[in-house]
C-alpha cells in the first residue's frame, strides 16, 4: 500500500495504539475520587503534559476536545459570546478549513461583520493585509497556519503579534492542524490566544484533539454538562483517545527537524518527478509546508485518476477541490490556473513516506496517461 493522503488522516503509530489500549485497561472515570478514577486522571494529565510541552505552554492551557472541529467551534463561538456584544467585526481568510469557515459564516448570520482576506495575485496572504483589516470593532481574528489543500504557510505569528500590539483586546485564533508536529509550532512565536489541534493528523487516533487557551482568557463553554476540562468542555474525557494522542505527541517530539528535512527532500523529489513526467505540474510553490503538495496531471480528471491509482493500491486525495461533491473554492483563491483545477491531486507525506512511494505514484500516473488517453 502506498499511502499519500496524510493530510486527510494518518496511520496511528504503535505508541498511539499502545496508549489507547492502556487507556482502555485503566477504565476508571477521571472524575471519580477513588483510585480507579485517580489512575485514569493521571493518564489524562500525562497526555496533557506532553501536548503542553510540544507547544511550549502550561498544562492548564490545554483542553481536550473531540478534535479540531470542536476546538475551532469552541474558540469562535466562545469569542463571540464573550466579546461579540460590544464589538462585532471578525477578520479571517478565504482559505480556511470549513471547521473555521462555517462557524464564522454562522456569526455573520448572527449579525457580525465578517472580513475575509483573499490571497493576492501570487496566491500569497500578507500579514499586512490581515493587520489592516483589524479595527476597534474587531473582537476575533482567525487564520490557519498551513492550508490543507496547497500547504501554503500563512504569516500567523507576524500578523497576530502586530494585532496584539495595536489592539490588545482582539482574540486571535489559529487552526494549527496541518502544521502541528510538522513545523516548529510554539505558542510564543504564533502569538495566538487560541490554537486548534487534531490528533489523527499526527499518527494519533480520530475523535480527539485539543484547544490551547491562553491563561487569563476566559472562554464560555460550547458543550455544557458535568464541568470536565475546567468547565470549558463537559463530558467524561475519552481517556483511551487522549492517551493515544499523548503517546503520538511523545513519539514525534524528538525529531521534528529531521522529519522536516526529509519532507523537504521529498517535496523536491516530487517536483523533479513532475518535471520529468512533463504532463504533471506543481500547483503551489510559494512559502509552504513540504508535507502537503498540490499537483495537476494534464488531461486526467482528479477523481478518474484517484480511482485509477486506488486500483494499484496507491492512495491520494482529489485535492479537496471537491469534498464529497462540493467544490471548496480554496484552490481558485490560491490562483491555481482554471485549466488545472479539475485535474488536481493532493499528495501529502508523513514521516514514513519514501522516494520509492513517489516513484510508485509516478509509475501509476504514467500508466494512467497511456491507458486513459482516450478520456482526454
Ligand atoms: N483544520 C484543518 C486545516 C484540517 O485539515 C482538518 C481536518 O481535515 C480540520 C481542521 C478538522 O480536524 P478534525 O478532523 O480533528 O475535526
Report on this structure.
The protein is of the alpha/beta class. Helices cover 41% and strands 15% of the residues. It has helices at residues 14-25, 35-55, 68-83, 98-109, 127-133, 156-166, 187-190, 239-253, 256-277, 302-311, 330-333, 338-341, 355-371, and strands at 2-3, 62-65, 89-93, 113-117, 138-142, 171-175, 194-198, 209-213, 280-282, 292-297, 314-315, 322-323, 326-327, 344-348. The chain has a 7-stranded mixed β-sheet with strand order 2-8-7-6-5-3-4, with helices on both faces. Strands 9-10-14 form a 3-stranded antiparallel β-sheet. β12 (322-323) and β13 form a beta hairpin. It is globular, with a radius of gyration of 21 Å. Pyridoxal-5'-phosphate binds at residues 67-69, 97, 99, 144, 148, 175, 177-178, 198, 209. Pyridoxal-5'-phosphate (PLP) binds at residues 67-69, 97, 99, 144, 148, 175, 177-178, 198, 209. Its cofactor is pyridoxal 5'-phosphate. Residues 2-361 form the Aminotransferase class V domain.
Order of helices and strands: EHHEHEHEHEHEHEEHHEEHEEEHHEH
Stretches with pLDDT under 50, minimum 5 residues:
none
- Mean pLDDT equals 95
Helix content range: 40-55%
**Largest sheet data:** 7 strands, mixed
* First and last CA, distance: 28 Å
The helix/strand class is alpha/beta
CATH class of the largest domain: Alpha Beta
CATH superfamily of the largest domain: Type I PLP-dependent aspartate aminotransferase-like (Major domain)
Going across the biggest sheet, name each strand in turn.
2-8-7-6-5-3-4
DSSP strand (E) fraction?
A: 5-15%
Overall shape = globular
Number of strands: 14
Radius of gyration: 21 Å
Bound molecules: pyridoxal-5'-phosphate
Amino acid at each position: 500500500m502506498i499511502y499519500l493522503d496524510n493530510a486527510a488522516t494518518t496511520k496511528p503509530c504503535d505508541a498511539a495504539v499502545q496508549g489507547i489500549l492502556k487507556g482502555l485497561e485503566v477504565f476508571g472515570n477521571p472524575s471519580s475520587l477513588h483510585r480507579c478514577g485517580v489512575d485514569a486522571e493521571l493518564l489524562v494529565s500525562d497526555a496533557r503534559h506532553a501536548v503542553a510541552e510540544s507547544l511550549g505552554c502550561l498544562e492548564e492551557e490545554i483542553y481536550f476536545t473531540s478534535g479540531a472541529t470542536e476546538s475551532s467551534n469552541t474558540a469562535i463561538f466562545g469569542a463571540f459570546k464573550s466579546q461579540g456584544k460590544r464589538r462585532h467585526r471578525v477578520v479571517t481568510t478565504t482559505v480556511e478549513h470549513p471547521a473555521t469557515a462555517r462557524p464564522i459564516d454562522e456569526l455573520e448570520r448572527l449579525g457580525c461583520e465578517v472580513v475575509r482576506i483573499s490571497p493576492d495575485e501570487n496566491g500569497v496572504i500578507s500579514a499586512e493585509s490581515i493587520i489592516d483589516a483589524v479595527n476597534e470593532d474587531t473582537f476575533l481574528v482567525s487564520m490557519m497556519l498551513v492550508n490543507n489543500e496547497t500547504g501554503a504557510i500563512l504569516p500567523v505569528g507576524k500578523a497576530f503579534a502586530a494585532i496584539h500590539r495595536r489592539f490588545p483586546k482582539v482574540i486571535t485564533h489559529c487552526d494549527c492542524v496541518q502544521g502541528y508536529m510538522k513545523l516548529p509550532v510554539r505558542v510564543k512565536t504564533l502569538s495566538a490566544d487560541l490554537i486548534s489541534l487534531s490528533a489523527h493528523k499526527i499518527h494519533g487516533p480520530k475523535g480527539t484533539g485539543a484547544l490551547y487557551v491562553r491563561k487569563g482568557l476566559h472562554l464560555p463553554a460550547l458543550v455544557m454538562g458535568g464541568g470536565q476540562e475546567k468547565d470549558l468542555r463537559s463530558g467524561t474525557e475519552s481517556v483511551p483517545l487522549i492517551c493515544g494522542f499523548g503517546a503520538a505527541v511523545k513519539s514525534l517530539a524528538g525529531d521534528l527537524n529531521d522529519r522536516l528535512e526529509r519532507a523537504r527532500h521529498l517535496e523536491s523529489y516530487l517536483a523533479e518527478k513532475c518535471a520529468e513526467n512533463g504532463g504533471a505540474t506543481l500547483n503551489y510553490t510559494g512559502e509552504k509546508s513540504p508535507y502537503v503538495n498540490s499537483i495537476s496531471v494534464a488531461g486526467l480528471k482528479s477523481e478518474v485518476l484517484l480511482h485509477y491509482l486506488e486500483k494499484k493500491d496507491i492512495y491520494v486525495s482529489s485535492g479537496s477541490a471537491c469534498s464529497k461533491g462540493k467544490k471548496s473554492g480554496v484552490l481558485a483563491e490560491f490562483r491555481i490556473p482554471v485549466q488545472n483545477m479539475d485535474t488536481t491531486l493532493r499528495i501529502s507525506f508523513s514521516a514514513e513516506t519514501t522516494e520509492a512511494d513517489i516513484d510508485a505514484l509516478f509509475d501509476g500516473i504514467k500508466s494512467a496517461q497511456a491507458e486513459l488517453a482516450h478520456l482526454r
